[in-house]
Amino acid sequence: YHLYSVGLEGGEPLQLTEGQDWSCKGPAFSADGDQIYCDYEPENMQVYNLDGIGRFDWAEGRKLGKPQVITRGFDRSVSSFEISDNGRTLYITAADAGRTRIYRLPARGGTAKALNPDSRGVYAGLQVAGKHMLAKWENSASPAEIVRIDRNGRHKALTQFNADRVRGIDLQPFREFWFENSNGRRVHSWMALPPGFDKSKKYPLVLQIHGGPFSSSMDAGHVRWSAALLASPGYVVLMTDYTGSVGYGEQFSRDISGDPLKTPGLDVLEAARVAIERYPFIDGSRQAATGASYGGHMVNWLQATTTHFKALVGHAGLVSLEGQYASSDTIYNREIMNGGPPWGDSPVWREQSPSSYADQFSTPILLTIGEKDFRVPINQTIAAWSYVQRKQVPGRLLVFHDANHWIMKGEEAKYFWGEVHAFLGKYLLD
Asked: Among all residues, which ones are annotated catalytic?
């Protein structure tokens, strides 16, 4: 993506930027009009790159060339930015260890510093408003509201749109823990607790594996995959930011290159073991795993490689790396991830494809898919179901004819959750 200018009276657009190794989106002028900033996205052969901020000096009718990247040294991916009224400071949002924090950055580059390095929750839609900032904020125990934020990162709610709607619902704030995985990387996890939580009791453990993989489990609610709703029958829900997740530096995300499922799968198993060791209220004899999109890929990988769980629930998950590659709406990034095309010399296509180990499928599984899904087409779920049936593994298949990659309709989502709770309850509570 490049920037162009065109006169208000019309005419031929003038390309302002150049180069093939980066893109520039979302341009914004400083208040005095002397600088222009944009979302800077590197283009290279890496599986993951941090998004940053590019800066140009502006002169009417002059080409801009390449930007000065003012976020070099900031090992987090920029989600959004706002320019202060005096033009000297940029306020940016970025994911960091399962939160979205607000950072202050000098407009000409320098060190980005968190306004509140101990903040919880997720900020979004940041806007500068005089001496304050406005944003949407939520965390795992508080639904989204509009807040006013001072320059020290303290915020005050301005709305009560959702607070009254959840009054009386026992939303437990997530707990968190870190551990060092077998590869020497520090891995972060959240835990969602059930309503009426009593630490003297024992609760089954259910893993909720996030999609992406270049995403993370955030200290917030989720409209489609609610950890609080999953925990509500009486489960502790574990959300682990496995290798490849974002908010832990560029290298942590890149470490999934050539290793799309094996190491992340080990991470979630190790996280479950650590959680059971550290928290006596978890019943390690009753465990299940759930996930959607990449999380669904991981569920099928766990089906293929472990008998650790009593039940699995997977939505929109691949069962064959090559099968998804050949039918998905995105292809090239999968070649980068797996070390080349399927007909090349990379062993990943077979060694980390769940279908290669279909003879080991044995865990009861609920498989769901949207018929209009083009990211993980329905053929992948039908194939997984065929292997499950051939192996005579207990299971259930749900096809949502109007759904795409996500189940978006309220009534269908309600039905989905009823089926999920019934299936997990059969193996964890009965």
From this structure: 293, 373, 405
